[in-house]
């Protein structure tokens, strides 16, 4: 497999990792909100910030992978 093929494999792994990470954050936030409904606003804010940071890191990795060709 040439280096371009490995870049595409790496990009696929990044996308899978981002999806799993955001899914785990969302699931954990739902569990936390079910346990403590009065803290739902703070939990949701923290969840959205963390999901945005993960998404940004994933997009950054994809952008760098596009330049490696």
Describe the secondary structure blueprint for this structure.
Layout: H1 3-35, H2 40-68
Summarize the structure.
It is built from 2 helices and no strands.
Identify low-pLDDT runs. none
Secondary structural class: mainly alpha
Helix content: over 70%
Q: How much is the average pLDDT?
A: 92
Count up the helices: 2
Element string (H = helix, E = strand): HH
Morphology call: elongated
Distance between the termini: 14 Å
How much of the sequence lies in strands comes to: under 5%
Rg over CA atoms, rounded to whole Å, is 16 Å
Largest sheet, in brief, is: none
Structure summary, number of beta strands? 0
Please, could you describe this protein's structure?
0% of the residues are buried. It contains two helices and no strands. The two termini are 14 Å apart. The chain has 69 residues and is mainly alpha-helical. α1 packs antiparallel against α2 (40-68). The protein has helices at 3-35, 40-68. The model has no long low-confidence stretch (mean pLDDT 92).
